[in-house]
Amino acid sequence: MKNFTCLFLFAVIYIQATAQVFFYDVPINKQIVPRNLSTNKGTIKINGVVYASNSPYTKIEVMKFRNNVFQQTYIQTLTYYSQFALFSFTIPVNAELANYKLEIYGVTATSNELIKTVDSLAAGDAFIIQGQSNAVATKLRGSSNKENQNSFIRVWGSAGSSYNHKWFIADGDAGDAGNNDGNAGQWGLRLAKRLLDSQHIPIVIFNGARGGKPISFFQESNTGVANNYSHLLDRVTESGFKNNIRAIFWYQGESDSNPGNSVSAYKKRFFQLYADWKNDYKGFQHLYIIQIKQSCFSDAEASTIIQEAHRQLAQEINNTTIFATNGLEHYSDQCHYGYSNGYKKIGDYLFPLVNRDIYYADNTDNVASPQVKKIIQTASNKLTLYFKNTSDAYFWEAGTENDFVINNTTAKIINGIVNGSTIVLTMNKNLQVASLSFYGHTVGGSPCIRNLSGEGMVGFYKFHVSSPLYSNTLKLNGSTGNNYKLNIYPVPAHDNLFLQYQLSQSSVVSISVVDITGNKVLQLNDSNHPSGINQSHINISALAKGVYVLKLETASTNFIGKFIKE
C-alpha cells in the first residue's frame, strides 16, 4: 500500500506537469505475457490515473485487435476524487501465434482522443537457459537464425549487465558472450522454434549464461551486491514471468573441471543454486541438466567427475532430466560447437524431452540419452550394462571401449556387444571389478554408445559394479531361525555344479536355477534328503554363460546362492 501511495503521488505531480493520463501499468510493444495453463489465455493489465483538466475525460476505452482485425472494446466510466480518477483493465488474449494490438482512448463529451497504441502483444511460455559458453551458444559456424528466427520467439533484454529494457525478436546468432540484446543462443532458438511449431504458442527465452565461469559465479550473492543471479532475476521479474517459468536448462561445468574438485563439492553448490531457483521462480516445473563433454582442454578425470555430479543430481532432484553431449562433434576449438553438427542437434535432442515433460507428448521411446542404471559382473571377464530405459534400442560403435576406465587396475575393456537392452563389455583380464568409469569421447562425435535417435550415453565416474559371489560359501538364515550353510563350487563353473548344504531334519528338497532377470531356466525333480550334511550335483552345460541364482527349498528352510557359468 505504501508503494502504491508513493506511485500515486508521483503520478499526480507528473500528470499536472505533463499530460492528462499517467499509466503505472501498461504493456509495451512486442510484449509476451504468461499463459494460463488452464485457460490457454494470457492477461494484459492496464492501470493508470486521469487528471481532470479543462475538458476532462469521462471514460477510458480500450479497443482490442487481433492481427489488425477489431475484436472488442472495453470501457470504464471515470469517477473523480479531488480532480483525479483511477482506471483499471484486465484484457484476455489467447495463447496463439497471433499479434494483438490495443488502442487506448480518452473519451470526452465531444470526442475520442487516442492516448496510446501498443502492438504485437501475445501470450505464451517462458524458459531459462543458464550456464557457460555452450549455453550462450554463440554463432561459430552456421546460422541458427536462418531457419529458426520467428517473430513469436522473443527475449526481454540481454545477459549483459547493462541492457535495453525492451522486448526483442530472439537472436540465435548474437555474439559478444551473450551481451547482445535479444540473445537466445543457437540451440535455445532452435529448441524454441521446435516448441513453437509443435505447440503453436509464442515462446520466451531468458538466456543468462556467461562463458568461462565456475558454478559459484551463477549463485545468488550473499553480500547484496548485484551479480549474474540477481541480474537474471531482475530481467525475469520485469518481464512478468517470475512465477511462470516452465523449465530451466543448466549447461555448465567445464570451468569446474579442475584437479582436486569433487562430486560432492559441485553438488553442494548446485543444491544451493537450485534451492534459490525454487524460491525465486516458484512456478518452474522441470530442470534439464546438460552434461558436459570431454575437452575444453580440461583434465579428463576432472571432467568425468563433473559428469558424475551431473548424473547424480539428475537422479536426486525430482522432475529433472539429464541430456548427455557425449557423441556430439565439437567445433575446431574442441570446446564449443558449430550449428549443424552441434547446437542444432542439442536443440533437436532437447525438444522431445521438453515435449514429453512439459507438454505431455506420448512419444517416450529413444528420446532420452542412454543412461546406465546398474552394472553387474556377469563373468570373470564380462561386465553387463543395464540401462534405465529398457524399451530403447542401443548401438555400440567400435572404439568406444577406449573411453571406459576400470578403476584401480590396469585391466581394460576390449570390446562391447549389444545384447537386447543391455551391453556386455569384455575385459582383457579375469578379475573382480569394483567400479567402472565412462569418460566419453574427446575429439569428434564418435565412437560412442547411442540410442536409436543417435544420442550419446551419459558419462559416469566410479560407478559401482555389483559383483557376483566370488566366495563359494553363502550363509543365510533359514525359516527355522538356525544359521545354515550352502556351499556352491566350483566358481566359476563350466558344465557341472556341486552343492553342499546342511538340513536339520529329513526333508523333500526342491532345487531350481533362475537367471538375473528372474526367469527360471532349470528345475530339478524334488527328492527326499536325510538330515545332516548333503551333497548334490547339477548339470549346467545347457545354460548360457552368465550369472545365475540357485534356490534350494524345503518345507522349513530356504537357501539362495549365486554362481557364474563360463
Description:
With 566 residues, the chain is α+β, with helices and mostly antiparallel strands. It is built from 8 helices and 32 strands. Strands 2, 4, 5, 7, 8, 9, 10, 11, 12, 13 and 14 form an 11-stranded mixed beta sheet that branches. Strands 18-21-23-15-16-20-19 form a 7-stranded mixed beta sheet. Strands 27, 28, 29, 31 and 32 form a 5-stranded antiparallel beta sheet that branches. It is elongated, with a radius of gyration of 32 Å. Mean pLDDT is 89; it is low at 1-5, 7-18 and 469-483.
Helices and strands in order:
Layout: H1 2-17, E1 21-25, E2 32-34, E3 41-51, E4 59-66, E5 69-77, E6 84-94, E7 100-107, E8 112-131, H2 133-136, H3 145-148, E9 153-156, E10 167-169, H4 186-199, E11 203-207, H5 228-239, E12 245-251, H6 263-280, E13 286-291, H7 300-316, E14 320-324, H8 339-357, E15 372-379, E16 382-387, E17 394-396, E18 404-406, E19 413-419, E20 422-427, E21 435-438, E22 449-451, E23 460-466, E24 473-477, E25 483-489, E26 496-503, E27 507-515, E28 520-523, E29 527-529, E30 532-539, E31 546-553, E32 558-565
Parallel strand pairs: 2-8, 8-11, 8-12, 9-11, 12-13, 13-14, 15-23
Antiparallel strand pairs: 1-3, 3-6, 4-5, 4-7, 7-8, 9-10, 15-16, 16-20, 17-22, 18-21, 19-20, 21-23, 24-25, 25-26, 26-30, 27-28, 27-29, 27-31, 31-32
Summary, kept brief:
The chain is α+β, with helices and mostly antiparallel strands and 566 residues long. The chain has 8 helices and 32 strands. The strands form 6 sheets. Strands 2, 4, 5, 7, 8, 9, 10, 11, 12, 13 and 14 form an 11-stranded mixed sheet that branches.
